[in-house]
Specification:
156 residues; homodimer; DNA-binding; three-stranded mixed beta sheet; 45% helix
Chain lengths: 156, 156
DNA sequence: GAGAATTAGGTTATAATGTTGCAATTCTAC
DNA sequence: GTAGAATTGCAACATTATAACCTAATTCTC
């Protein structure tokens, strides 16, 4: 729930970038300037962010800013698990704990707009339970919840 | 898993429409010709169906077929829980067990394209578990899984 | 049953989101 | 340093969804 509460924002971004670099080195892929900048922007917004919101932000930095540029960067980041896509919002958000492939899951507060990643272990367990019960073989999954977060539910 | 296996298709559609009529009467809303036809088409396709796929199908029946017509009908059907929206596919599919509001959840086979609704009770339980653990209040939820269904995973 | 209020549908245009195809450039490995 | 691969630039286009405004149908109230 860390990201539903106030916190040191710059720190978030910096560590996210550092982790990204590590992951990219490990996987032998390139964190190019556009890709890095897109990742920074996604973390900077710190809320689910649409691809088209990133375009002007990229342009402001002197980067090329046509849709394919952003989508290619986002696809790359999705691919190696540095961000997630929240399809009910057509939006993207930084991954809390990149490194391995894990199921996507978010709670999205309808009041403040923040999104908190769901505990991967529980998602994994539930997915396994469903595989069992339904006799299927799960390849990917995404769970999206909306409602009021711990902070907003206590507001007047 | 009923709808991942061969079955009497016309029967599906007929019962879906009958249930829809009941639900609409109960809720005091109108199942107008366009709405009914859209629901029939969604069931007829029997796979997640995009709004724009419905347009020519509606046109063939002599109905008006502009995007707003279809979206209005789909919104109505969503509202009263007769269909679900699968946002990772931008598609719609008939609800197995309409009547009450319940969490949306589907397993989508990447091979045959069929979608099976997840057991609502388990979704409900998992959602409650997450509410507890995360201290949030859930208003809606949608779980979308992909992979191989029981039939397709046994194919060569 | 007349008239007001509500709900539903028709029509046109446009917004928002995402993709394709190809040429130019940059990087990597040898 | 050169061939091949990966990345980016660019222009056009495809898909999905909504806004705005008006007309028609239905329901409600008296």
């Amino acid at each position: 729930m860390a990201n539903l509460h106030p916190h040191n924002h710059d720190h978030c971004i910096r560590t996210a970038i550092q982790r990204a670099q590590t992951v990219c080195e490990q996987q032998g892929v390139r964190l190019t300037p556009v890709r890095r900048r897109v990742l920074e922007l996604v973390w900077q917004n710190h809320k689910p962010t649409g691809a088209y919101e990133l375009l002007p932000q990229l342009a402001a930095d002197g980067f090329n800013s046509a849709p394919p540029t952003v989508y290619r960067a986002l696809d790359f980041l999705l691919e190696i698990g540095l961000i997630h896509r929240i399809s009910s919002l057509n939006a993207f958000i930084g991954c809390d704990h990149p490194g391995g492939q894990h199921p996507t899951g978010f709670f999205i507060c309808t009041d403040c707009g923040n999104a908190a990643e769901l505990p991967a272990a529980r998602l994994q367990a539930f997915s396994a339970e469903l595989e069992q019960v339904m006799g299927v073989q799960v390849a990917s999954s995404s769970y999206e919840l909306t409602g009021l977060c711990g902070v907003c539910r206590l507001k007047p």
